[in-house]
């Protein structure tokens, strides 16, 4: 068994789409970043890379590399999950938390959970997504950005 954890935070800005776990969320602002800034996909990707013992997103998808400009979180997760089978590993489960003061994400939780499961190639029962706020504390609490955390458990797969 291997466990990995990931974390990401991006600033909310006008003129960008808001994507979380591959789901487009209607909102006046989106997340700023070199890629699509999908904080949830990035946190999950970091967790997977950590469990694989292969560093983090910056090692594999450096922001100075034009190949990754505006890359979708879905694309990054596809690149990372492709590393699992050759390593003889499979996802047991993923537990993720989105921390946001705005927008209200509860209506999208199941859609985000199902999207992540599809992106990871696992049944939805193996993916859990939680939604939290900071009750107005800090940059996220002031509505300046959105953060995400993820923990993934991998196990040896039958080859």
Describe this structure in words.
There is one protein chain. This protein is an alpha+beta fold and 159 residues long. The protein has 5 helices and 7 strands. It has a 5-stranded mixed beta sheet with strand order 4-1-7-5-6. Strand 2 (18-20) and strand 3 form a beta hairpin. Helix 1 (39-52) runs parallel beside helix 3. The longest helix has 14 residues, at 39-52. The chain is globular.
Mean pLDDT: 94
How many strands, what sense, and barrel or not for the largest sheet? 5 strands, mixed
Count the beta strands.
7
Distance between the termini: 15 Å
Number of helical stretches of at least 4 residues: 5
- Strand proportion, as a percent range, falls in 25-35%
Q: Radius of gyration over alpha carbons?
A: 15 Å
Keywords for this entry:
globular; two-stranded antiparallel sheet; alpha+beta; five-stranded mixed sheet; single chain; 159 residues
Itemize the secondary structure elements and their pairings.
Blueprint: E1 2-14, E2 18-20, E3 23-25, E4 29-31, H1 39-52, H2 57-60, H3 73-81, E5 89-99, H4 109-120, E6 127-132, H5 138-141, E7 145-156
Parallel strand pairs: 5-6
Antiparallel strand pairs: 1-4, 1-7, 2-3, 5-7
Helix pairs in contact: 1-3
